[in-house]
Structures are given as structure tokens and as C-alpha cells.
Amino acid sequence: VQLVESGGGLVQPGGSLRLSCAASGFTFSRFAMSWYRQTPGKERELVAYISGGGGTTNYADSVKGRFTISRDNAKNTVYLQMNNLKPEDTAVYYCSARSEVAGYLVYWGQGTQVTVSS
Fold first, then answer.
1. Averaged pLDDT, 3-29
2. Which of 26, 99, 106, 114 is deepest in the core (most CB within 10 A)?
3. How far apart are CA 32 and CA 99, in angstroms?
4. What is the largest CA-CA distance in the chain?
5. Torsion angle, CA of 26/76/53/89, rounded to 10 degrees?
6. If DSSP codes are grouped into helix, strand and coil, which group holds residue 18?
7. Are 97 and 42 in contact (CB under 8 A)?
8. Which pLDDT score, from 0 to 100, does residue 107 have?
């Protein structure tokens, strides 16, 4: 099983980034996908969620209206489009997969750094 994030980097406030998470080794469409983020000294927080079929999405209040999660089950990839980025969005962003059949099956990626700074 692999989850490989990409697309992080340094961006100015107000800018945009699109994160990608490429999955392999499991039946992607049967797993809900989420993006989490973590800063030093803080707990990992849920940013966005999308169900296996893509019909249900949820967002943290802090990113509603700015971030959009989507998935392409044909490409086994989930995305996080981040617009109007703020310095407080700076964090390591992690991709996570949770089985919609066996909820105890959870996989994590290695994380990608997003830094919002002028």
C-alpha cells in the first residue's frame, strides 16, 4: 500500500496550490479519502474528506470556501485545491485512506510541506 503526496511548496498569501495523492495497493474506490494537516506542537487536524464515490465531502470550518477536495477513481488519485492561502495554512499536509467496509483499515501518506509566506 502506498499513498504518495505531491504539490506542496512555498506560496505567497493569497496564492494557490493543488496537492495530489496517488494511491496504490488497495481498491481506491472503496476507501474514503481525507486530507489532514499538522504543525509542530499541535495535533493533526482534519482538513477535508471525500467519500469513496465522491458524492460526499466535508471541510474544516477554517478552509470552507477556499479549499476543494476531489478524486479521480480512474487514476487512483485524490486532490486538494487550495485557494486564497493564508499564513495559518502553513503545515505538513497528509493524505489518508479509510476503508468504507472495514473502518479499522487506515493508511497514511508521508506528508508534503505547504508554506504560505511573503
1. 97
2. 114
3. 6
4. 44
5. 110
6. strand
7. no
8. 96
Query: Is residue 89 classed as helix, strand or coil in its secondary structure?
Result: helix
Helix (H) or strand (E) holding 88: none
- Give the integer Cα–Cα distance in Å for 28 and 22: 10
Asked if 79 contacts 69 with a C-beta cutoff of 8 angstroms, the reply is: yes
Give me 56's grid cell: 460526499
Residues 108 and 86: their CA atoms lie apart, in Å, by 25
Taking the C-alpha atoms of residue 69 and residue 78, their distance in angstroms, rounded to an integer, is: 7
User: What is the pLDDT of the chain when averaged over all its residues?
Assistant: 97
Tell me the average pLDDT across 54-79. Answer: 98
Cell of 47: 482538513
Chain-centroid distance of CA 102 in Å reads: 21
Cell of 107: 493508511
**Backbone phi, psi, residue 6, to 5°:** -155, 165
